[in-house]
Amino acid sequence: MSEEKKFRWVGTRPIRPDGIDKVTGRANYGADFALPDMLWGKVLRSPHAHARIQSIDLKRAKALAGVHAVMTAEDLPDLFAEAAKSNGGHDSSNDLAHNVMARGRVLYHGHAIAAVAATSSAIASQALELIDVEYEPLPHVLDIASAIASDATLIHEDRVTQGVEGIEGFEGAEPSNIANRVQLGHGDPAEGFDLADEVIEREFTTRPIHQGYIEPHACLAQTTPDGRVTLWSSSQGHFMVRDYTAKLLDIDLSLVKVIPAEIGGGFGGKTTVYLEPLAVVLSRKSGRSVKMVMSREEVFRASGPTLGTRIKLKLGATREGVFTGGEATLHYEGGAFGGSSVMAGCMTIFAPYAFPHVRSTGYDVMVNKPKGAAYRAPGAPMAAFALETVIDEMAERLEIDPVDLRLRNAAKEGTLASFGPRYRRVGCVETLEALRDHPHYSAPLGPHQGRGIAVGFWFNAGLQSSAGVNLNPDGTVTVLSGNPDIGGSRASLALMTAEEFGIEYERVEVVIADTQSIGFTDVTGGSRVTFATGMAVIEAAADVRRQLCERAAAVWEVDAERVVWEDGEARLKGESDRAPLTLAELAQNAGRTGGPISGRAALTARGVGMAFGAHICDVEVDPETGRVEVIRYTAVQDAGRAIHPSYVEGQMQGGAVQGIGWALNEEYVFDSDGKLENPGFLDYRIPVASDVPMIDTVIVEVPNPKHPYGVRGVGEVPIVAPIPAVVNAVYAATGVRFRDLPLSPPKVLVGLDGKSAA
Amino acid sequence: MQYVMATTVEEAVALLTEGGVDAFPLAGGTDLLAQMRVGRIKPARVIDLKKIPELREIVEAEGEYQIGAAVSGAELGEHVGLRARWPGVVEAMELIGSTQIQGRASLGGNLCNASPAADSVPALIAAGAVCSLVGPEGRREIAVEEIITGPGRTCLARNEIVAHVRLPRPKPGSGDAYLRLIPRSEMDIAVVGAGVALTLDPDGTCTACRVALGAVAPTPLAVPEAAAALVGRRLDEAALAELEAAARAAARPIDDMRGTIVYRVRVAGVLAKRAAIIAAQRAGE
Amino acid sequence: MKRHITATIDGEAREFLCDEDQTLLDALRDVLFKTGTKEGCGTGDCGACSVTVDGRLVCACLVLAAEVEGARVETVEGIAQEGELHPLQRRFLEQAALQCGICTPGFLVAAKSLLEKNPDPSEKEVRFWLAGNLCRCTGYDKIIRSVLDAAADLRGESG
After folding, report:
1. What angle do CA B138, B140, B146 make, to 5 degrees?
2. Residue A4 falls inside a structural domain
3. Are residues A535 and A550 in the same domain?
4. A479 and A557 belong to one structural domain
5. CB contact (8 A) between residue A649 and residue C142
6. CA A555 to centroid of chain Cα atoms
7. CATH number of the domain to which A546 belongs
8. Which residues span the domain enclosing C23?
9. C132·B99 Cβ contact <8 A
10. Which of A16, A24, A214 is nearest residue C103 as measured by Cβ atoms?
11. Where among A604, A629, A660 does a domain terminate?
12. What is the DSSP pairing of strand A112-118 with strand A39-45?
């Protein structure tokens, strides 16, 4: 793909096709569906962080007038115990089944243990109060140190650490709260530090954080006596909903139809199921459709936050600022079942830079907290917090400009990445240069103000996508895809389709088809939709173009190789006086030239474009109260090619503000009983409109050589840099380095006091 | 649950008396409905007070302001005269929640919800507000600092309501201000709140002062020692430092997820000082 | 026993039955099937359920349905008039002020209420007025710009 190519639609900013519905309240999200026979389902949740369930008595609940079904884990098939047993206690389907409803033990405060369906949500709530449960509370484990201690209470008595064959300290395969150990890197860090003139070693801690999507989980389930299931569900992937629900309930995939609702935010938190299997069971037991919606409190207590971390990081560099060695040990809480993103943390923690010697070791630690789920570039923000603040410290120690130090070591094409492969063409250098050249970087600062920068990296995903492109007889085009539209992807797919055919954007309609109407498609996540589903749409469109050319060739009675597609028309090569055939004309005659014209693609997208972002943050700190205000922010990012620049900017701005919230205010607060004290937006403090300034954006385009348009995923990169950018800015403003998040005012004031006392 | 509307204070009191311990008065509902939603309160009856004229009016008479207990924060903020006379009271009320909350939340509700961190109360205490309560025995007048007796508790009988809050006529050269510390810029419960009202002589000497703190004790606190630090003096650095120290000394907060003891004590002093400076600027205008 | 309510909702006289402890939000969504107004938290912390009652901006989750007897309620669904989008809606679309769109109804109602009260707000005034409307996708930037530009449109000042 030539870098000089001029696009007609790609790179423009049309109105998204689903926009009118979303500004008039017509769009249907998960909780907006209803059926005439509908019941309301509600979940009873554990009041203990860790307990054995001795008995559950549903008699009184079932007897309440208006209650039509009750359930416990006994109503879910127990399918995965054997698989778990033969794998050291670990099986992801077993974990999912146990998380959806507790069996035998409850493992976190809020863990689901029973559910009811009733004719109103008020009666359903009443029914929950009539469920009698006997618990035997067990000691609970709430932090990394307690979880890995040699005398720790085991959360699962049968789980041994995976990934530790031959590793000292793990002989004997005793059950442990460490679910997994991973390690990667190259070279020998000890040698790397020997080569260094300066070595800095620091430890960092972060707290559990929630994705904070504004729409609670919701679904509506309808079942028939012959085993068919229909689910309306708000999720990041209706195929995922289908597959997980069918797997947990042992239903043939062909009998489960999931219809995607619009989704009110996900950020990784809706790439799994909580309610759907329960709604299906309740629907079967009652013979009616069942709607379930989580309350905000349930979302915080019992969906999938990302959990706390502890990272030790060591960095060595020469006096000239060349990195010689990097070593990190990462402990990430995975919640009650493990499965943290520590592997991605290990992979990204040194990723933006070239290292001759680098190693990261990660531990996935189980604690009595909710089962963790992905949160936007999962594992990377914490890792970048560690690396980018140490780099800032190194820059100061070496007396090298922070951008220059990063540029000196920035990953380029051919660099051996800390996580294994060699980078293809990437834009780390270009992104840093754009940051350095931005007027923000050299703008003056006032008293109590400071500026910080940081780099963020994310791999971006490929995975599987299917697409269909149907040509309508009037020349309009219908695109079928399987990805819920979280952030404007319908518009991007329509732009690419318009570009591929040379027709007006308004002539393209993008449909998000249900699981029975389009081929398998992986979730909307991993920054993959514009890249991978875009690729599938482009391939399907190419298939249609080939057919169009064949039809034109048939009309003109020539060989198909003599027909080209240009500017929305079929043209006969070398005969400029032969009138071209437009898409509309060929479409109109399709029935007579061979039948309906449609194209298909089903692919595993390869050639993902890894991407970098670099952010500048200015803060002002009130020296008497420790309160931090973000006064200016600029986000620079390599998007490869921005299909719809407004939505690329939007991803950058949204990710930056999430990172700002993570750095300054957000955290789960658990009491000593393991109960979450702040399960609401009042005390789980995400940024509000008056907390942040405008977020200026700069889109750098270093096209991904492997994508027809050069696309690199953009959704996740923007949350990786903000935390260290903010923390570095606070250092510049106060002279205090913070290594524990969030930087709440009391914490900052303690830091300021410590500095003035020193 | 039963929803009923009262059109007179007597009717409200009668409905409360009859409804017993599970009957709750309803003004803006921003505390009541939120607590109902999370199951903390389960009323058998709510009595809507918003049709009672006295509770919905702001009346000025001879320099005194009588504010109906069910007047919303938004209406308070729109009242030009009140805003000019008592900017501290108005800004304190306006800090509660969001614009949407302001559309409903009331002074009476904020007071009777009796949170230690209630934003309107320190400003009302500093202003010397008096509450007019109505119960089955009739009326009684209580100084606002005596209303809240503990977290979530007031001195009102179960079947008593606040009908209005009265702000006295301020002397010439008076000003008031309220500040609070929250981690974000809006929406949070106060970590610390400070209200100051004072009167200055034409030469800048403080002749009267009242200081109150919020969120640093089980109830909002009047701090006479802090006020005394300014009376008879000009607001120079030494006087303000004494005010700050007195405010810190009076604070007896707890550690919770919103703030630590050490932090709250420190910031109580800082905010009292800053509020005094703003009140003095307003007094001079 | 259910309560019978008559109110004017988005310009239309409506009658409905509700439980006495049902909120206006529940009545709108589950009784009237007007699902344009969203629930994000149910406790007044997120603004997704913003509506106006007799012209006053409130959270519908903190108003009892019973309270709107005889009142005029306006939701996002009444903002466009006879198929014509309001300048706020147009600007939100043109300037990509929505990504997932769940917060958009609340923002539109709240912003419209602001501009009716203050036709020429500063950026700071817009941010503080809208502080009760949470957005997790956009970082607020494009929302604020859209409101400021729509204000200019309404003042007849846009080029």
Report:
1. 145
2. no
3. yes
4. yes
5. yes
6. 49
7. 3.30.365.10
8. 3-78
9. yes
10. A214
11. A604
12. antiparallel
**Test the B interface: residue of A207, A621, A682 with most B CBs within 10 Å:** A682
**Cα→Cα distances A65→A60, A589, B39, Å:** 10, 62, 21
**Which helix or strand (DSSP H or E) is residue B54 part of?**
helix B53-56
Q: Who among A687, A691, A749 is closest to B266 (CB)?
A: A749
How many structural domains does chain A have? Answer: 4
Q: Which domain does A430 fall in, by range?
A: 421-453+608-758
For helices C87-94 and C104-117, the axis angle rounded to 10 degrees is: 130
Please count the structural domains in chain C.
2
**Chain C residues whose beta carbon lies within 8 Å of the beta carbon of residue B189:** none
- Cis preceding linkage at A742, omega within 30: yes
Cβ-contact A662, A722 below 8 angstroms: yes
Mark yes or no for CB contact C132/A688 under 8 Å: yes
Q: Give the pLDDT of chain B (285 residues) as one tens digit per residue.
A: 999 999 999 999 999 999 999 999 999 999 999 999 988 999 999 999 999 999 999 999 999 999 999 999 999 999 999 999 999 999 999 999 999 999 999 999 999 999 999 999 999 999 999 999 999 999 999 999 999 999 999 999 999 999 999 999 999 999 999 999 999 999 999 999 999 999 999 999 999 999 999 999 999 999 999 999 999 999 999 999 999 999 999 999 999 999 999 999 999 999 999 999 999 999 988
Mark whether A378 and A475 lie in a shared domain: no
* In contact, A720 and A457? CB cutoff 8 Å: yes
Considering the domain architecture, whether residues C97 and C47 belong to the same structural domain is answered as no
Alpha carbon distance B266, B260 (integer Å):
10
The CATH number of residue C145's host domain is 1.10.150.120
Q: Do C95 and C135 fall within a single domain?
A: yes
* Phi and psi at residue C82, to the nearest 5°: 50, 45
Q: How far apart are CA C59 and CA B37, in angstroms?
A: 13
| Predicted confidence (pLDDT) per residue in A654-675, tens digit | 999 999 999 999 999 999 999 9
Question: What ipTM was estimated for this complex?
Answer: 0.98
Q: Which residues of C touch A495 (CB under 8 A)?
A: none
Q: Where do the H-state alpha helices sit in chain C?
A: 24-26, 87-94, 104-117, 123-129, 141-154
Q: Across the interface, do A689 and C126 touch by the CB < 8 Å criterion? A: yes
Residue of A nearest to C139 (CA): A654
Half-sphere exposure of B122 (CA within 13 A, CB side): 38
| CB A757 within 8 Å of CB A419 | no
Hunting for tokens 């369906």 — which residue is that? A117
Q: Is C45 on the interface with B (CB under 8 A)?
A: yes
* Nearest-by-Cβ selection for C56 from B36, B74, B98: B74
Distance between CA A603 and CA A703 in Å, rounded? Answer: 21
Chain A residues within 8 A of B35 when measuring between CB atoms = none
The CATH number given to whatever domain includes residue A283 is 3.90.1170.50
Domains and CATH numbers, chain B: 2-167 (3.30.465.10), 174-284 (3.30.390.50)
Contacts 24+ apart (CB under 8 A), A146-149: A146/A367, A147/A177, A147/A178, A147/A333, A147/A365, A147/A366, A147/A367, A148/A176, A148/A177, A148/A178, A148/A331, A148/A363, A148/A365
Q: In sequence order, what are the residues at sequence separation of 6 or more whose Cβ sits closer than 8 angstroms to the Cβ of residue B23?
A: B15, B16, B43, B44, B45, B46, B47, B158
Does B68 touch chain C if contact means CB atoms closer than 8 Å? no
Q: Provide the 10 A C-beta neighbour count for residue A608.
A: 23
DSSP structure class, residue A104: S
Q: Which two tokens stand for residue A155?
A: 């959360």
Residue C159 forms part of a structural domain:
no
Based on the domain organization, do A47 and A161 belong to the same domain?
A: no
Residues C130, C100 share a domain: yes
Residue of B37, B180, B258, B273 best to disrupt the A interface, most CBs of A under 10 A:
B258
Q: Are residues A308 and A177 in the same domain?
A: yes
